[in-house]
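Q: Hi! Curious about what FecR family protein looks like structurally. Here's the sequence.
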Amino acid sequence: MGTTSDTEKAKALLRRYLAGQCTAQERAQVEAWYAGLEAEALLASRQEAASIRKVEKNLKDALAEERSSRRLRLLPVQAMLRVAAILVLAVTAALSYYKYKAADQRSPNPTEIIAHNGERKELYLKDGSVVYLNAGSRLVILPDFGQSSREVFLTGEAFFKVASDSLRPFIVKTHAVTTRVLGTSFNVQAYENESTASVAVAGGKVSVAKERQMDGNFFEEKLLPGRQLTFSKADQRYTVSDTDVAQLSAWRHGLAYFDNESVDAIARKLERKYDLRIRVTGDDKPECRYTFRISDEPIEKVLEILSRVAGITYTIQPDTILISTEACSNITPNGK
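A: Let's find out. The predicted structure is below.
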């Protein structure tokens, strides 16, 4: 993001431009930024889009008054609105991206978007599809996305709302399985440090395929809404079952559901959600599995819930949380 200094400089430049007081070099800079906007960005966050719309509305009102007292001849009003919106946002990285895309539309480099531990991202692809990226995840988009194909590579977890296109299937590849759709919504979970990968369908029809490495056999399964395919990385086999997709994908809204999960599995999810390091000691007892829900409460509260109902003990250190399962019980917590 740009600094406060970047923002103030951009505002000052915009004011001079509107007043007709820019130097030739400054005027060329503003108009170059505007020209660069003609190149479509591959994606934009909801926050950026909402900010642009808000700034445009405010500026439109201001320009309505400005036109009565000043002559604005350098650019059409709509162009001025777009320039002003971007300038007021003053996001240095975004401006660099726009200029780069405008200058080199044929770049062979893929685009990589990362949601680090402790954060989630909402992405808008240029085909109209929306991707919600969970913490600890990475999405790679090929440079020809939306042209001859719609193909992405996912590590981690994401929920996809795919824009319908009967001529260009939307393909999500992971290290475990490949998902192919024409237009639907579904959740894919494929973290590298988890023993399984899964695809759950919220709407439409999804095809999930994989060539098994152990025997070379190929499988392809068609999934309908409310169905989930779970693929085991160890034996390269899969199962299909009913699932509550709304609950499974509730992480988009800051919720986390744990469904009959071990303390080790819970710890891995908490690490991603809260961006911290957790070390579990003690045996992973089969009887110690828990089903509960949390939202965005502090990690201390979550640990207290587990301590009270599951019998774990924990220690919070400066850079690590230690959890002991030695005294765990098989009581199922009902955390809200």
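A: A fun detail: The CA atoms of residues 171 and 242 lie 23 Å apart.
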